Recover the amino acids of this structure.
């Protein structure tokens, strides 16, 4: 019977290994999105992310185990055969698991690429924030927000018949809508959640279950502003 100390060391090594796998997977998707890989290659991207995750997780597990057992941290690491086996097992395990969930590696790759694009776009917007935010103009009205041809660098608050704001539309320097802040909760997303569009002017590239729903407060505060005498349809942070 293994001792409690030994089981504790295994648990710590597994935890660190899983964390490393998650980081490697996320980094793979962000890098793929940054270099412009399209969803046509979703299967290849998904398989690559899983393969690298398996290698990274296996290497991290061994290194952590070595440290916990007071041996050289790199003892047994960087063995080519072990790395290939770890990567292959990760892909195979996910493939078997996906049979029961109905998802699949292609869906996993597509969702990961979408999340990667959102991350890249958020980073770009963050570094441009100092240039853009001071120039923002604010508008409101009862007609649905435009998808393009709006005032560049502006926020449009869509107001319903009760005088409450349903949604803020955020426009880039070309007047194309680049994001929505929704004050109507749906699913598990509360009022004030956001959608960032991978293709400005096309809201369909940021809405739907394949795209992230960003929590309230994730984007610059200027995106959440509404007319001073109005309130959001549902208080921010409140769900269905």
């Amino acid at each position: 019977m293994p001792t409690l100390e030994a089981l504790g060391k295994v648990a710590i090594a597994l935890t660190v290994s899983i964390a490393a796998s998650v980081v490697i997977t996320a980094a793979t998707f962000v890098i793929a999105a940054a270099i412009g890989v399209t969803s046509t290659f979703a299967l290849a991207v998904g398989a690559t992310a899983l393969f690298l995750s398996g290698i990274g997780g296996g290497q991290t597990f061994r290194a952590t185990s070595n440290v916990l057992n007071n041996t050289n941290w790199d003892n047994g690491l960087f063995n080519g055969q072990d790395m290939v086996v770890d990567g292959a097992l990760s892909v195979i395990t996910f493939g078997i698991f996906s049979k029961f969930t109905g998802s699949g590696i292609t869906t996993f790759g597509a969702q990961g690429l979408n999340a990667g694009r959102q991350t890249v776009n958020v980073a770009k917007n963050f570094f441009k924030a100092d240039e853009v935010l001071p120039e923002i103009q604010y508008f409101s009205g009862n007609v649905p927000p435009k998808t393009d041809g709006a005032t560049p660098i502006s926020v449009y608050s869509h107001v319903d018949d009760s005088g409450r704001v349903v949604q803020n539309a955020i426009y880039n320097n070309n007047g194309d809508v680049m994001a929505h802040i929704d004050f109507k909760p749906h699913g598990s997303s509360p009022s004030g959640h956001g959608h960032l569009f991978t293709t400005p002017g096309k809201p369909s590239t940021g809405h739907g279950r394949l795209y992230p729903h960003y929590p309230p407060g994730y984007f610059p505060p200027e995106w959440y502003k509404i007319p001073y005498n109005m309130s959001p349809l549902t208080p921010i942070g409140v769900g269905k």
Remarks:
- Confidence is low (pLDDT under 50) at residues 129-133.
